[in-house]
Amino acid sequence: MKSDKIPPIRDVFSSKIGVIAAAAGSAVGLGNIWKFPYITGVYGGAAFLFVYLGFIALIGLPIMLSEFMIGRKSRSNVFGAFKNLAPNSPWKYVGLLGVAAAVMILSFYGVIAGWSIDYIVKSITDSFAAKSPGELESMFFQFIERPILPVFYQLFFMLMTMAIVIVGIKDGIEKYAKILMPLLIVIIIVLDIRAVTLDGAKEGLNFLFHPDFSKLTADGVLSALGHAFFSLSLGMGTLITYGSYIGNQNNLAKTALQVTVADTLIAILAGIAIFPAVFAFGIEPDKGAGLVFITLPNVFQQMPGGFFFSILFFLLLTVAALTSSISILEVVVAYFREELKIKRNLATILATVMISIVGIFCSLSMGLFKEQTLFGLNFFDLLDWISANMLLPLGGLFISLFIGWYWGRKRVEEELAKGSKLSRGLISAFIFVLKFIAPGAIAIVFFNGLGVF
Ligand code: TRP
Asked: pLDDT tens-digit profile of 222-234?
Protein backbone atom coordinates (compact mmCIF):
# COMPACT_ATOMS: atom_id res chain seq x y z
CA MET A 1 0.00 0.00 0.00
CA LYS A 2 1.16 3.50 -0.78
CA SER A 3 2.41 5.79 1.91
CA ASP A 4 -0.29 8.18 2.81
CA LYS A 5 0.63 11.83 2.87
CA ILE A 6 -1.68 14.72 3.49
CA PRO A 7 -1.45 17.55 0.87
CA PRO A 8 0.48 19.24 -0.68
CA ILE A 9 1.90 15.88 -1.74
CA ARG A 10 -1.26 14.33 -3.14
CA ASP A 11 -2.24 11.47 -5.36
CA VAL A 12 -2.46 12.13 -9.09
CA PHE A 13 -3.89 10.14 -11.95
CA SER A 14 -1.02 8.68 -13.91
CA SER A 15 -2.25 9.24 -17.47
CA LYS A 16 -4.73 11.06 -19.67
CA ILE A 17 -6.53 7.84 -20.45
CA GLY A 18 -6.67 7.09 -16.74
CA VAL A 19 -8.38 10.41 -16.06
CA ILE A 20 -10.95 9.74 -18.76
CA ALA A 21 -11.57 6.16 -17.64
CA ALA A 22 -12.05 7.23 -14.04
CA ALA A 23 -14.25 10.23 -14.79
CA ALA A 24 -16.29 8.41 -17.42
CA GLY A 25 -16.48 5.48 -15.01
CA SER A 26 -17.96 7.83 -12.46
CA ALA A 27 -20.46 9.26 -14.90
CA VAL A 28 -21.53 5.97 -16.46
CA GLY A 29 -23.47 4.06 -13.86
CA LEU A 30 -26.88 2.99 -12.69
CA GLY A 31 -27.96 6.41 -13.92
CA ASN A 32 -27.30 5.38 -17.51
CA ILE A 33 -28.40 1.78 -17.50
CA TRP A 34 -31.11 1.57 -14.85
CA LYS A 35 -32.50 5.07 -14.47
CA PHE A 36 -32.19 6.66 -17.91
CA PRO A 37 -34.24 3.99 -19.70
CA TYR A 38 -36.92 3.89 -17.05
CA ILE A 39 -37.46 7.65 -16.73
CA THR A 40 -37.34 7.98 -20.51
CA GLY A 41 -40.10 5.36 -20.54
CA VAL A 42 -42.13 7.13 -17.88
CA TYR A 43 -41.85 10.59 -19.45
CA GLY A 44 -42.75 9.49 -22.93
CA GLY A 45 -39.57 8.57 -24.80
CA ALA A 46 -37.84 10.78 -27.34
CA ALA A 47 -39.28 14.13 -26.15
CA PHE A 48 -37.70 13.56 -22.77
CA LEU A 49 -34.46 12.47 -24.42
CA PHE A 50 -34.23 15.72 -26.41
CA VAL A 51 -34.77 17.94 -23.38
CA TYR A 52 -32.22 15.86 -21.52
CA LEU A 53 -29.67 16.26 -24.32
CA GLY A 54 -30.25 20.02 -24.28
CA PHE A 55 -29.49 20.21 -20.55
CA ILE A 56 -26.41 18.03 -20.97
CA ALA A 57 -24.89 20.25 -23.64
CA LEU A 58 -25.93 23.65 -22.33
CA ILE A 59 -25.58 23.19 -18.59
CA GLY A 60 -23.93 19.86 -17.86
CA LEU A 61 -20.79 20.34 -19.90
CA PRO A 62 -19.91 23.83 -18.56
CA ILE A 63 -20.54 22.72 -14.98
CA MET A 64 -18.38 19.65 -15.47
CA LEU A 65 -15.53 21.85 -16.65
CA SER A 66 -16.12 24.13 -13.66
CA GLU A 67 -15.89 21.21 -11.25
CA PHE A 68 -12.64 20.00 -12.80
CA MET A 69 -11.21 23.53 -12.54
CA ILE A 70 -12.22 23.99 -8.92
CA GLY A 71 -10.71 20.64 -8.03
CA ARG A 72 -7.45 21.05 -9.87
CA LYS A 73 -6.87 24.61 -8.73
CA SER A 74 -7.55 23.85 -5.07
CA ARG A 75 -6.02 20.34 -4.97
CA SER A 76 -8.44 19.58 -2.21
CA ASN A 77 -11.54 17.65 -1.17
CA VAL A 78 -14.85 19.35 -1.93
CA PHE A 79 -15.15 21.15 1.42
CA GLY A 80 -11.49 22.14 1.44
CA ALA A 81 -11.75 23.27 -2.18
CA PHE A 82 -14.23 26.03 -1.45
CA LYS A 83 -12.41 26.86 1.78
CA ASN A 84 -9.12 27.27 -0.14
CA LEU A 85 -10.48 29.21 -3.06
CA ALA A 86 -12.84 31.42 -1.07
CA PRO A 87 -11.32 31.75 2.39
CA ASN A 88 -13.48 33.05 5.23
CA SER A 89 -16.69 32.91 3.28
CA PRO A 90 -19.80 30.74 3.42
CA TRP A 91 -18.86 29.05 0.12
CA LYS A 92 -17.44 26.12 2.07
CA TYR A 93 -20.99 25.08 2.97
CA VAL A 94 -21.53 24.26 -0.68
CA GLY A 95 -18.81 21.68 -0.14
CA LEU A 96 -20.54 20.36 2.92
CA LEU A 97 -23.74 20.02 0.92
CA GLY A 98 -21.75 17.90 -1.50
CA VAL A 99 -20.50 15.56 1.20
CA ALA A 100 -24.06 15.17 2.50
CA ALA A 101 -25.33 14.43 -1.01
CA ALA A 102 -22.59 11.84 -1.47
CA VAL A 103 -23.64 10.00 1.69
CA MET A 104 -27.29 10.04 0.63
CA ILE A 105 -26.68 8.95 -2.95
CA LEU A 106 -24.30 6.13 -2.17
CA SER A 107 -26.70 4.84 0.50
CA PHE A 108 -29.44 4.04 -1.97
CA TYR A 109 -27.04 3.44 -4.86
CA GLY A 110 -25.51 0.51 -3.00
CA VAL A 111 -28.95 -0.99 -2.50
CA ILE A 112 -29.77 -1.02 -6.21
CA ALA A 113 -26.31 -2.32 -7.04
CA GLY A 114 -27.00 -5.10 -4.54
CA TRP A 115 -30.22 -5.99 -6.38
CA SER A 116 -28.19 -6.17 -9.53
CA ILE A 117 -25.81 -8.70 -7.96
CA ASP A 118 -28.79 -10.78 -6.85
CA TYR A 119 -30.06 -10.68 -10.43
CA ILE A 120 -26.74 -11.98 -11.72
CA VAL A 121 -27.25 -14.92 -9.38
CA LYS A 122 -30.88 -15.32 -10.47
CA SER A 123 -29.76 -15.25 -14.13
CA ILE A 124 -27.12 -17.92 -13.58
CA THR A 125 -29.60 -20.16 -11.80
CA ASP A 126 -32.11 -19.60 -14.63
CA SER A 127 -34.75 -18.30 -12.24
CA PHE A 128 -36.76 -16.32 -14.80
CA ALA A 129 -37.57 -19.31 -17.00
CA ALA A 130 -41.24 -19.93 -17.71
CA LYS A 131 -42.41 -17.19 -15.34
CA SER A 132 -45.38 -15.00 -16.25
CA PRO A 133 -44.96 -11.19 -16.14
CA GLY A 134 -46.98 -11.19 -12.94
CA GLU A 135 -44.73 -13.80 -11.37
CA LEU A 136 -41.62 -11.87 -12.35
CA GLU A 137 -43.10 -8.77 -10.80
CA SER A 138 -43.83 -10.48 -7.50
CA MET A 139 -40.43 -12.13 -7.61
CA PHE A 140 -38.85 -8.67 -7.71
CA PHE A 141 -40.98 -7.15 -4.97
CA GLN A 142 -40.73 -10.19 -2.74
CA PHE A 143 -36.98 -9.99 -3.05
CA ILE A 144 -36.52 -6.28 -2.34
CA GLU A 145 -38.92 -6.49 0.61
CA ARG A 146 -36.92 -9.22 2.29
CA PRO A 147 -35.03 -8.06 5.37
CA ILE A 148 -31.75 -9.96 5.02
CA LEU A 149 -30.78 -10.94 1.48
CA PRO A 150 -30.86 -7.50 -0.19
CA VAL A 151 -28.89 -6.07 2.75
CA PHE A 152 -26.37 -8.86 2.36
CA TYR A 153 -25.82 -8.01 -1.33
CA GLN A 154 -25.75 -4.30 -0.59
CA LEU A 155 -23.00 -4.80 2.00
CA PHE A 156 -21.14 -7.07 -0.39
CA PHE A 157 -21.21 -4.32 -3.00
CA MET A 158 -20.06 -1.71 -0.47
CA LEU A 159 -17.15 -3.97 0.45
CA MET A 160 -16.08 -4.19 -3.20
CA THR A 161 -16.28 -0.41 -3.43
CA MET A 162 -14.24 -0.05 -0.28
CA ALA A 163 -11.62 -2.53 -1.45
CA ILE A 164 -10.88 -0.38 -4.49
CA VAL A 165 -10.97 3.02 -2.82
CA ILE A 166 -8.80 1.98 0.10
CA VAL A 167 -5.88 1.32 -2.27
CA GLY A 168 -5.89 4.90 -3.50
CA ILE A 169 -6.16 6.82 -6.74
CA LYS A 170 -3.58 5.34 -9.10
CA ASP A 171 -3.53 1.73 -7.98
CA GLY A 172 -7.17 1.56 -6.99
CA ILE A 173 -9.63 3.85 -8.73
CA GLU A 174 -7.66 4.47 -11.91
CA LYS A 175 -6.52 0.89 -12.35
CA TYR A 176 -9.96 -0.63 -11.95
CA ALA A 177 -11.61 2.01 -14.13
CA LYS A 178 -9.17 1.13 -16.90
CA ILE A 179 -10.13 -2.54 -16.64
CA LEU A 180 -13.87 -2.20 -16.07
CA MET A 181 -14.78 0.52 -18.59
CA PRO A 182 -13.65 -1.42 -21.69
CA LEU A 183 -15.47 -4.47 -20.32
CA LEU A 184 -18.60 -2.40 -19.95
CA ILE A 185 -18.40 -1.08 -23.50
CA VAL A 186 -17.95 -4.56 -24.95
CA ILE A 187 -20.94 -5.90 -23.01
CA ILE A 188 -23.24 -3.07 -24.00
CA ILE A 189 -22.36 -3.41 -27.67
CA VAL A 190 -23.09 -7.15 -27.58
CA LEU A 191 -26.47 -6.41 -25.98
CA ASP A 192 -27.21 -3.71 -28.58
CA ILE A 193 -26.55 -6.06 -31.46
CA ARG A 194 -28.89 -8.59 -29.91
CA ALA A 195 -31.63 -6.00 -29.35
CA VAL A 196 -31.66 -4.36 -32.78
CA THR A 197 -31.69 -7.71 -34.57
CA LEU A 198 -34.92 -8.78 -32.86
CA ASP A 199 -38.08 -8.84 -34.96
CA GLY A 200 -40.06 -5.75 -34.09
CA ALA A 201 -37.05 -3.79 -32.83
CA LYS A 202 -38.09 -0.78 -34.88
CA GLU A 203 -40.92 0.30 -32.67
CA GLY A 204 -38.56 0.56 -29.73
CA LEU A 205 -36.17 2.73 -31.70
CA ASN A 206 -39.08 4.94 -32.74
CA PHE A 207 -40.07 5.36 -29.15
CA LEU A 208 -36.54 6.44 -28.29
CA PHE A 209 -35.89 8.75 -31.24
CA HIS A 210 -39.21 10.19 -32.49
CA PRO A 211 -40.35 12.83 -30.03
CA ASP A 212 -43.93 13.41 -28.98
CA PHE A 213 -43.68 16.69 -27.10
CA SER A 214 -47.28 16.54 -25.95
CA LYS A 215 -46.18 13.93 -23.45
CA LEU A 216 -43.73 16.27 -21.77
CA THR A 217 -44.67 17.66 -18.35
CA ALA A 218 -43.04 20.18 -15.97
CA ASP A 219 -42.19 17.22 -13.81
CA GLY A 220 -40.53 15.60 -16.81
CA VAL A 221 -38.42 18.69 -17.44
CA LEU A 222 -37.29 18.83 -13.80
CA SER A 223 -36.43 15.16 -13.96
CA ALA A 224 -34.46 15.71 -17.17
CA LEU A 225 -32.42 18.39 -15.42
CA GLY A 226 -31.97 16.36 -12.24
CA HIS A 227 -30.96 13.38 -14.30
CA ALA A 228 -28.48 15.38 -16.38
CA PHE A 229 -26.71 16.22 -13.12
CA PHE A 230 -27.01 12.71 -11.77
CA SER A 231 -25.79 11.02 -14.90
CA LEU A 232 -22.79 13.30 -15.37
CA SER A 233 -21.93 13.00 -11.65
CA LEU A 234 -22.36 16.75 -11.19
CA GLY A 235 -23.46 19.02 -8.40
CA MET A 236 -21.89 17.42 -5.38
CA GLY A 237 -18.18 17.58 -6.04
CA THR A 238 -17.38 14.10 -7.35
CA LEU A 239 -15.60 15.74 -10.24
CA ILE A 240 -14.12 18.41 -7.97
CA THR A 241 -12.59 15.56 -6.02
CA TYR A 242 -11.39 13.76 -9.17
CA GLY A 243 -10.24 17.11 -10.60
CA SER A 244 -7.99 17.52 -7.59
CA TYR A 245 -6.03 14.49 -8.80
CA ILE A 246 -5.67 15.68 -12.40
CA GLY A 247 -2.26 16.90 -13.52
CA ASN A 248 -1.69 20.50 -14.63
CA GLN A 249 -0.78 19.55 -18.19
CA ASN A 250 -4.20 17.96 -18.77
CA ASN A 251 -6.60 19.66 -21.17
CA LEU A 252 -9.59 19.99 -18.87
CA ALA A 253 -11.97 21.31 -21.52
CA LYS A 254 -11.27 18.38 -23.80
CA THR A 255 -11.55 15.92 -20.93
CA ALA A 256 -14.93 17.36 -19.92
CA LEU A 257 -16.17 17.09 -23.49
CA GLN A 258 -14.98 13.49 -23.84
CA VAL A 259 -16.55 12.41 -20.57
CA THR A 260 -19.85 14.11 -21.41
CA VAL A 261 -19.99 12.49 -24.83
CA ALA A 262 -19.09 9.06 -23.43
CA ASP A 263 -21.75 9.27 -20.75
CA THR A 264 -24.43 10.37 -23.18
CA LEU A 265 -23.52 7.74 -25.76
CA ILE A 266 -23.66 4.97 -23.20
CA ALA A 267 -27.06 6.11 -21.94
CA ILE A 268 -28.34 6.02 -25.51
CA LEU A 269 -26.72 2.63 -26.11
CA ALA A 270 -28.48 1.38 -22.98
CA GLY A 271 -31.76 2.70 -24.37
CA ILE A 272 -31.04 0.89 -27.64
CA ALA A 273 -30.36 -2.32 -25.74
CA ILE A 274 -33.60 -2.06 -23.80
CA PHE A 275 -36.45 -0.45 -25.75
CA PRO A 276 -36.34 -2.54 -28.93
CA ALA A 277 -36.46 -5.66 -26.78
CA VAL A 278 -39.27 -4.28 -24.64
CA PHE A 279 -41.38 -3.40 -27.67
CA ALA A 280 -40.51 -6.55 -29.59
CA PHE A 281 -42.14 -8.60 -26.84
CA GLY A 282 -45.13 -6.30 -26.51
CA ILE A 283 -44.35 -4.96 -23.07
CA GLU A 284 -45.21 -1.45 -21.87
CA PRO A 285 -42.11 0.74 -21.48
CA ASP A 286 -43.42 2.91 -18.67
CA LYS A 287 -43.06 0.48 -15.77
CA GLY A 288 -40.82 2.81 -13.74
CA ALA A 289 -38.03 1.67 -11.45
CA GLY A 290 -38.82 -1.99 -12.10
CA LEU A 291 -38.06 -1.70 -15.83
CA VAL A 292 -34.74 -3.50 -15.76
CA PHE A 293 -35.64 -5.88 -12.91
CA ILE A 294 -39.15 -6.89 -14.02
CA THR A 295 -39.55 -6.08 -17.67
CA LEU A 296 -36.13 -7.20 -18.83
CA PRO A 297 -36.21 -10.66 -17.22
CA ASN A 298 -39.48 -11.13 -19.06
CA VAL A 299 -37.77 -10.11 -22.27
CA PHE A 300 -34.77 -12.34 -21.60
CA GLN A 301 -36.79 -15.46 -20.99
CA GLN A 302 -38.53 -15.06 -24.35
CA MET A 303 -35.45 -14.07 -26.29
CA PRO A 304 -33.18 -16.51 -28.13
CA GLY A 305 -29.99 -16.68 -26.08
CA GLY A 306 -31.73 -14.90 -23.23
CA PHE A 307 -30.05 -16.94 -20.52
CA PHE A 308 -26.66 -15.71 -21.62
CA PHE A 309 -27.72 -12.10 -22.32
CA SER A 310 -29.38 -11.84 -18.97
CA ILE A 311 -26.18 -12.72 -17.12
CA LEU A 312 -24.30 -10.22 -19.29
CA PHE A 313 -26.82 -7.48 -18.67
CA PHE A 314 -26.78 -7.67 -14.88
CA LEU A 315 -23.01 -7.97 -14.94
CA LEU A 316 -22.97 -4.77 -16.98
CA LEU A 317 -25.22 -3.06 -14.47
CA THR A 318 -23.03 -4.10 -11.55
CA VAL A 319 -19.78 -3.07 -13.23
CA ALA A 320 -21.22 0.31 -14.18
CA ALA A 321 -22.41 0.81 -10.61
CA LEU A 322 -19.00 -0.07 -9.19
CA THR A 323 -17.00 2.49 -11.20
CA SER A 324 -19.50 5.11 -10.04
CA SER A 325 -19.75 4.10 -6.41
CA ILE A 326 -15.99 4.36 -5.99
CA SER A 327 -16.18 7.98 -7.15
CA ILE A 328 -18.95 8.78 -4.70
CA LEU A 329 -17.13 7.11 -1.81
CA GLU A 330 -13.96 9.01 -2.70
CA VAL A 331 -15.78 12.32 -2.10
CA VAL A 332 -16.38 11.37 1.50
CA VAL A 333 -12.99 9.67 1.93
CA ALA A 334 -11.08 12.71 0.66
CA TYR A 335 -13.12 14.91 2.97
CA PHE A 336 -12.44 12.71 6.01
CA ARG A 337 -8.75 12.37 5.18
CA GLU A 338 -8.05 16.02 4.75
CA GLU A 339 -10.44 17.65 7.15
CA LEU A 340 -10.13 15.12 9.97
CA LYS A 341 -6.48 14.55 9.07
CA ILE A 342 -6.68 10.77 9.16
CA LYS A 343 -5.13 8.08 6.98
CA ARG A 344 -6.83 6.82 3.81
CA ASN A 345 -7.42 3.38 5.36
CA LEU A 346 -9.27 4.71 8.34
CA ALA A 347 -11.14 7.32 6.30
CA THR A 348 -12.29 4.68 3.83
CA ILE A 349 -13.50 2.29 6.50
CA LEU A 350 -15.26 5.07 8.39
CA ALA A 351 -17.04 6.37 5.29
CA THR A 352 -18.03 2.87 4.16
CA VAL A 353 -19.47 1.93 7.54
CA MET A 354 -21.40 5.17 7.82
CA ILE A 355 -22.88 4.95 4.34
CA SER A 356 -23.65 1.26 4.68
CA ILE A 357 -25.66 1.90 7.83
CA VAL A 358 -27.78 4.57 6.14
CA GLY A 359 -28.02 2.17 3.20
CA ILE A 360 -29.41 -0.62 5.38
CA PHE A 361 -32.30 1.68 6.29
CA CYS A 362 -32.84 2.39 2.59
CA SER A 363 -33.05 -1.29 1.90
CA LEU A 364 -35.36 -1.96 4.83
CA SER A 365 -37.64 0.89 3.76
CA MET A 366 -38.67 -1.33 0.85
CA GLY A 367 -40.25 -3.88 3.16
CA LEU A 368 -40.00 -3.76 6.91
CA PHE A 369 -40.33 0.03 7.12
CA LYS A 370 -42.54 0.47 4.09
CA GLU A 371 -45.22 2.26 6.09
CA GLN A 372 -42.81 4.90 7.42
CA THR A 373 -43.17 7.60 4.79
CA LEU A 374 -42.64 11.35 4.46
CA PHE A 375 -44.51 13.27 1.72
CA GLY A 376 -45.70 9.85 0.57
CA LEU A 377 -42.15 8.63 -0.06
CA ASN A 378 -40.35 5.89 1.80
CA PHE A 379 -36.82 6.52 3.06
CA PHE A 380 -35.20 5.17 -0.11
CA ASP A 381 -37.31 7.27 -2.48
CA LEU A 382 -36.92 10.28 -0.22
CA LEU A 383 -33.11 10.14 -0.38
CA ASP A 384 -33.25 9.61 -4.14
CA TRP A 385 -35.66 12.52 -4.63
CA ILE A 386 -33.93 14.98 -2.29
CA SER A 387 -30.48 14.28 -3.68
CA ALA A 388 -31.25 14.11 -7.40
CA ASN A 389 -33.94 16.77 -7.64
CA MET A 390 -32.79 19.18 -4.92
CA LEU A 391 -29.19 18.84 -3.74
CA LEU A 392 -27.60 18.25 -7.15
CA PRO A 393 -29.35 21.13 -8.95
CA LEU A 394 -28.62 23.39 -5.97
CA GLY A 395 -25.00 22.27 -5.95
CA GLY A 396 -24.84 22.93 -9.70
CA LEU A 397 -26.38 26.36 -9.20
CA PHE A 398 -23.75 27.32 -6.62
CA ILE A 399 -20.89 25.91 -8.68
CA SER A 400 -21.92 27.93 -11.72
CA LEU A 401 -22.34 31.08 -9.61
CA PHE A 402 -18.97 30.44 -8.00
CA ILE A 403 -17.08 30.26 -11.28
CA GLY A 404 -19.21 32.78 -13.19
CA TRP A 405 -19.39 35.53 -10.57
CA TYR A 406 -16.95 34.85 -7.74
CA TRP A 407 -13.98 33.56 -9.73
CA GLY A 408 -14.57 35.54 -12.87
CA ARG A 409 -12.94 35.57 -16.25
CA LYS A 410 -9.32 36.24 -15.33
CA ARG A 411 -8.91 33.23 -13.09
CA VAL A 412 -10.82 31.02 -15.52
CA GLU A 413 -8.39 32.04 -18.26
CA GLU A 414 -5.42 31.34 -16.01
CA GLU A 415 -6.68 27.89 -15.11
CA LEU A 416 -7.59 27.00 -18.69
CA ALA A 417 -4.23 28.22 -19.95
CA LYS A 418 -2.81 25.11 -18.29
CA GLY A 419 -3.27 22.45 -20.91
CA SER A 420 -6.44 23.72 -22.59
CA LYS A 421 -6.63 26.03 -25.58
CA LEU A 422 -10.09 27.57 -25.61
CA SER A 423 -10.63 30.53 -27.93
CA ARG A 424 -11.63 33.88 -26.40
CA GLY A 425 -15.09 33.44 -27.86
CA LEU A 426 -15.57 30.05 -26.25
CA ILE A 427 -14.38 31.35 -22.91
CA SER A 428 -16.85 34.23 -23.16
CA ALA A 429 -19.62 31.79 -23.96
CA PHE A 430 -18.57 29.58 -21.06
CA ILE A 431 -18.65 32.48 -18.59
CA PHE A 432 -21.94 33.75 -19.97
CA VAL A 433 -23.55 30.35 -19.50
CA LEU A 434 -22.26 30.09 -15.95
CA LYS A 435 -23.29 33.62 -15.05
CA PHE A 436 -26.79 33.65 -16.48
CA ILE A 437 -28.00 30.65 -18.42
CA ALA A 438 -27.19 27.81 -16.04
CA PRO A 439 -28.35 29.55 -12.84
CA GLY A 440 -31.45 30.91 -14.58
CA ALA A 441 -32.43 27.59 -16.10
CA ILE A 442 -31.76 25.69 -12.90
CA ALA A 443 -33.80 28.17 -10.85
CA ILE A 444 -36.77 28.12 -13.23
CA VAL A 445 -36.85 24.36 -13.64
CA PHE A 446 -36.28 23.81 -9.94
CA PHE A 447 -39.08 26.07 -8.67
CA ASN A 448 -41.40 25.03 -11.44
CA GLY A 449 -40.86 21.39 -10.61
CA LEU A 450 -41.56 22.11 -6.97
CA GLY A 451 -44.85 23.62 -8.10
CA VAL A 452 -44.01 27.20 -7.14
CA PHE A 453 -45.30 28.81 -10.36
N1 TRP B 1 -23.26 9.33 -12.48
C2 TRP B 1 -23.47 8.08 -11.83
C3 TRP B 1 -24.58 7.34 -12.55
O4 TRP B 1 -25.01 7.76 -13.57
C5 TRP B 1 -23.75 8.21 -10.36
C6 TRP B 1 -22.89 9.19 -9.68
C7 TRP B 1 -21.56 9.10 -9.43
C8 TRP B 1 -23.29 10.45 -9.21
N9 TRP B 1 -21.14 10.23 -8.83
C10 TRP B 1 -22.17 11.07 -8.67
C11 TRP B 1 -24.50 11.07 -9.19
C12 TRP B 1 -22.27 12.35 -8.18
C13 TRP B 1 -24.58 12.34 -8.68
C14 TRP B 1 -23.47 12.99 -8.18
O15 TRP B 1 -25.04 6.34 -12.10
From this structure: 889 889 999 999 9
CA-CA distance, 276 to 292, in Å (whole number)? 13
Bridge partners, residue 377, by sequence:
374
Cβ(40) – ligand 1 distance below 6 Å: no
Pocket of ligand 1 contains residue 325 by CB under 6 Å: no
Reported confidence tier of residue 453, pLDDT bands at 50, 70, 90: low
Q: Decide: 26 in ligand 1 pocket, CB within 6 A.
A: yes
pTM above 0.85, yes or no: yes
Tens-place pLDDT, residues 316-336: 999 999 999 999 999 999 999
Q: Is the CB of 241 under 6 A from ligand 1?
A: no
Classify the C-alpha dihedral 376-381-382-386 as positive or negative. negative
DSSP labels, 29-96: SHIIIIIHHHHHHHTTTHHHHHHHHHHIIIIIHHHHHHHHHHHHHHTS-HHHHHHHHSTTSTTHHHHH
Q: Ligand 1 center to residue 267 CA distance, Å?
A: 13
Gap between the Cα atoms of 226 and 328, Å rounded: 17
Which residues, in sequence order, are bridge partners of residue 374?
Answer: 377
Radius of gyration (C-alpha) of the chain in whole angstroms: 21
